[in-house]
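Dear Dr. V.,

Thank you for agreeing to look over these. As mentioned in my earlier message, I'm a first-year student in the group and I'm still getting used to reading structure tokens, so any feedback on how I've presented them would be very welcome. I ran two proteins. I've put each sequence directly above its structure. The first is here:
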Amino acid sequence: MQLPEERRQAIVDAVEREGRVLAAELAGRLATSEDTIRRDLRDLDAAGLLRRVHGGAVRLRPAASFGERAETDLPRKMLLAHGLRACIRPDDTVLIDAGSTHLALARLLEDGCAAAIVTNSPQIALALGHFRRTRIVLLGGTYHPDEGATYGAATLAEVGRLRPDLALVGVCGVDVERGLAASNPEEAALKEAMLAVSARCAAAVLNERFDERAAFLFGALERIDQLVLESDAPPQAVARLRDRHPQLDLTFTAKAEA
């Protein structure tokens, strides 16, 4: 019989190894009840060993570099990237926000997928640097290496002169009532500007973003045309989105491989 301390250590090990775990799956693995797992997750969250989210837990996110984040949870991000790819039309000018999911998208795009792609991410621009039929434009501004992005007054000014057909904005937190949020004010200001100048707007949302307490709101969900969600997105959050924002086109990814 497994001791509580052993069970909790097994949970911590699984979260560190996999990045994200579901309470129901843990209950099966550890031959215990979901109620027991949920109590363990609450205790481990309080102890600062993981972060409890709807339906399970995720790894605590340290101050990792953009390069480290870009290699984390790649299968999930690639599935979201395929959902975003479906939003892009061949004649579009597309404004792509910095972010690791958007870098995954850049890695699967083909030359000619759009008329032009504009980004504040040098990494995304480099990933598309071999394109000839699609024009690639890198926004200027102050480079923030931890975010892998340019921000600031110069970046905002350049975005203000654009008229993109589609903006793909990164999301740090989703509040169904209040809208989309970012982790810092410079990010939020740029994302808000991207939404304001674009004819269509889309965003991909990792499940844990529904529980993320990002502090800086940048846009109402009414401004978004399409949300790409994971196949196992929290059912309560999905139901509230459909109830409060019927204009949203919700796209779900295929199920991730085990």
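The second protein is here, in the same arrangement:
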Amino acid sequence: MAVTKPRTPEDAYTAEPFVPDHGGLPTLREAAANCRGCPLHRDATQTVFGQGSASARLLLVGEQPGDQEDRQGKPFVGPAGKLLDRALAEAGLDPAEAYVTNAVKHFKFTRGEPRGRRIHKAPSLREMSACGPWLAAELAIVRPELIVVLGATAGKALLGSSFRVGEVRGTLLEREIHGRAERLLPTVHPSSVLRSDDRESALRGLVADLEVAARALG
């Protein structure tokens, strides 16, 4: 007789019960503010939901909010966001016309010491999966022509745990995502450019990938 393993608390992580089944982006944003789908909400200042027009042709997905995003409640407002805006503009894309969001909506971090600086910590696959219903709902409303996947975590959230950004960056992909055919272009996360020993070269690489996105949008 098969023995059923008891579910661990982590197995039960999901935002699904908190996602409204109707309404637009404002309704989603309001509901996400009260999400308790995984433990990350306990230490984060607030939910950081996506931002931009519901009719945006381009949707960019990053990893999770950083320190500044967590404090301000908006995605991509820290140093990586400023660099992303620069890269988009250099590639011929208007940052103001894109919808930007993250695979995970709460800031995950550790502290080096009590009351010390909050240090980014990558979300787990289960935390990404738990937050997936929010991203699915955003995609269903925005219905972008192209999704730019920023970095490994966003790639794993959308394309599976075997995703490796170095293998497909700058390449247009067609995949079924949350039940809908999507075009995607993976590239590095702008924070990796900031960490690079050769920042200008890394930035040129990001811009080159985004130029592929610009051409795909015509």
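From my reading of the second output: The chain is about 35% helix and 15% strand. Residues 1-8 have pLDDT under 50 and may be disordered. Does that match how you would interpret it?

Kind regards,
E.
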